[in-house]
Amino acid sequence: MKTILTTHVGSLPRPHDLLDMMKARLSGAAYNEATYDARVRRAVSEVVAKQVECGIDIVADGEQSKPGFFTYVRERLSGFEPRADLKVPFFEAEVSAFPEYYKDYFARAMGGGAVAPMVPTVCVGPVSYIGRDALTRDIENLKAALAGRSVAGAFMPSVAPSGAGLNEHYQTDEDYYEAVVSALRIEYKAIVDAGFYLQIDDPFLSDVYSDLRYDEAQKNRKAGLYVEALNHALDGIPEAQVRFHTCYGINEGPRIFDAKLKDVVGHMLKVKARFYSFEGANPRHEHEYHVWESIRLPDGKVLMPGVITHASNIVEHPELIAERLLRYARIVGGENLIASADCGFSSQACYKTEVNPKVIWEKFRALVEGARLASNKVWS
Question: What does the DSSP assignment read for 277-321?
Fold first, then answer.
């Protein structure tokens, strides 16, 4: 019988002893590089084994080697520097509307002990790719973890050009993205050549539509520039091997100023990818499956809606997950669906993730069971 496959968005909690070594490495403290590399390799094997045990069909390395979104960019691309004093309007409307909540939230988040602070990156020099050794290790670690294990596929996330950082070096946005594209293509191609699905992480596409600095025309222009740059980076890479992920935030919160899927979807579908991942379990977005009633999914494309959320410790009931999947199946067909999560569960490497690790694995088991229930109804 046909089945709706299961996957997730990528990042998963890192073991605490690995976090200790990662923190030492980033702070300039003494650490043993060989011991560190061996622990990362073992962590990848452990996290892949756990995904397989839960029944996940398309697995990832859990981004075990990556300290965090911005740190990863600086480790892979030259020309960028951290800028701790730079104010970037993350959740600007949300924070302004709910200052007491976010004051408490950020205090708790800092208490989670991220090994690398979320410091924005700025391009201050020529961009080139410097992450070949790290990328090779990531690929080899995932291949080793998959050996002897039966899965439907494996994926590796990589940042979209829009997520590299702010530009202070190149004269125009076009020149800047041309340089970033040339660098990131090296990573994109290596992942696909290794036999993995390439997942493009691009929360910044959705973020454009909740940014108070732009009017509608500016939002559309910026989103169009992001997609154009990404498609240029994907030239020559088979669409069948590309997953595109966008989301609205990694936090639990009111989220009433999130972008709307209907504003983002037109740009999203222009990306040269076969698979599209977006939030669908978040209570602010669950209703947006209706968007697909008026937007035709192009032939050969597959939706990967989130049917479990990354921002709540409640484990979704498998029957609810099945119901969420059936809503999409009635519109686009079960054969054009993969069950997924809203976002990653540990985009920043930290000691205390928003969702407890034990709860994450229960969510994955519920995801698998929900996909089975939905499959039975679609193809019974």
Answer: EE--SSTTTGGGGGHHHHSPPPTT-EEEEEEE-SS-SSPPPHHHH
